[in-house]
Write a structure and sequence with these properties.
Main location: membrane
Radius of gyration: 24 Å
Strand content: 35-45%
GO molecular function: coreceptor activity; MHC class I protein binding
CATH topology of the largest domain: Immunoglobulin-like
CATH architecture of the largest domain: Sandwich
Keywords: Adaptive immunity, Disulfide bond, Glycoprotein, Immunity, Immunoglobulin domain, Membrane, Signal, Transmembrane, Transmembrane helix
Shape: globular
Number of helices: 2
Protein name: T-cell surface glycoprotein CD8 beta chain
Helix content: 10-25%
Order of helices and strands: EEEEEEEEEEEEHH
Distance between the termini: 8 Å
Membrane topology: Single-pass type I membrane protein
CATH class of the largest domain: Mainly Beta
Largest sheet: 8 strands, mixed
Length: 192
């Protein structure tokens, strides 16, 4: 079965890539092994799919219906790391990718890398600075703040703090769902 307390480290944890581009997922191999397996969990299709196995000589074995020109594995012979290269990304490549090695009749599983493929990458947020005034800026006192909504006013920072709190709370169900997904994967692989 899967040995959950000895996870292999994968980097990065999340990838957001554009359609038709290529990407790479790295897996650290601190344990002795005979080769590396790569799997993909698809949330949409609710299945765990075997992609490719690469032995120490670099010979690859592909899963059913897996295009050989799409996936390749590099670095297995070094015994220290393995990289899964994915070419010509499409929406069907969305999912969580796991590396795995077999050791002493146990299958060690990677920590997982979530890949999202989009047609257009979101633009990075630009930080804009207001032009500096030569006049000294001073804070409006409480007596004057009644009719003004200045930078020191609670009318500005209270809604801002509340929206940040709501955003953080909305991440809790996502983290819970990912935990349940990893548990389901473990149970499914354990039964097989």
């Amino acid at each position: 079965g899967f040995c959950t307390n000895l996870l292999l480290a994968q980097t990065p944890k999340h990838i957001l890539a554009q359609t038709n581009n290529n990407t790479e997922i790295r897996c650290e191999l601190s344990k002795e092994h005979a080769g590396v397996y790569w799997f993909r969990w698809s949330q949409e299709r609710q299945n765990f799919e075997f992609l490719i196995f690469s032995n120490l000589l670099g010979k690859a074995t592909y899963g059913t219906n897996i295009m050989q020109d799409k996936f390749s594995v590099h670095g297995v012979s070094s015994h220290t790391s393995s990289s899964l290269h994915i070419r010509h990304l499409h929406a069907s490549d969305n999912g969580t990718y796991y590396c795995s090695v077999s050791q002493s009749s146990q299958l060690l599983l990677g920590s997982g890398t979530q890949l999202g493929v989009v047609d257009v990458l979101p633009l990075p947020l630009k930080t804009t600075q207001a032009p500096r005034s030569k006049k000294p800026v001073r804070c409006v006192t409480k007596s004057k703040a009644a009719g003004k909504k200045g930078a020191c006013s609670p009318l500005v920072w209270v809604p801002l703090a509340a929206s940040v709190l709501v955003l953080l709370l909305s991440l809790v169900p996502i983290a819970h769902r990912l935990h349940r997904l990893r548990r389901r994967l473990w149970l499914r692989a354990h039964r097989q």
